């Protein structure tokens, strides 16, 4: 599959945004847990799984974007 340069940058931008949002959410979730907020265990587990999965998705999108940028650079020296 071929990506244009703008699509590659879009994927990288989405990956960066994904990392920013989910790392911020993880910090907030950790702070809430440290404060002793009363939530069922399922709440903490579900949100932790959500964070991990979305960070993996961000890493995959970033890797695809970087690979697309490198491929375009190799085509146009």
TrEMBL record:
Pfam families referenced in this protein's UniProt entry, alphabetically: SCO4848
Annotated keywords: Membrane, Transmembrane, Transmembrane helix
Lineage top rank: taxon: Bacteria
Source organism of the structure: Nocardioides panacihumi
Regions that span the bilayer: 7-25, 45-66
Protein name per Swiss-Prot or TrEMBL: Membrane protein
Taxonomic lineage of the native organism: Bacteria, Bacillati, Actinomycetota, Actinomycetes, Propionibacteriales
């Amino acid at each position: 599959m071929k990506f244009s340069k703008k699509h590659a940058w879009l994927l990288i931008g989405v990956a960066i945004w994904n990392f920013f949002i989910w790392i911020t959410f993880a910090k907030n979730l950790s702070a809430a847990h440290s404060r002793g907020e009363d939530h069922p265990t399922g709440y903490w587990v579900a949100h932790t799984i959500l964070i991990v999965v979305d960070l993996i998705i961000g890493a995959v999108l970033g890797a695809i974007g970087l690979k697309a940028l490198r491929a375009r650079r190799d085509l146009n020296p």
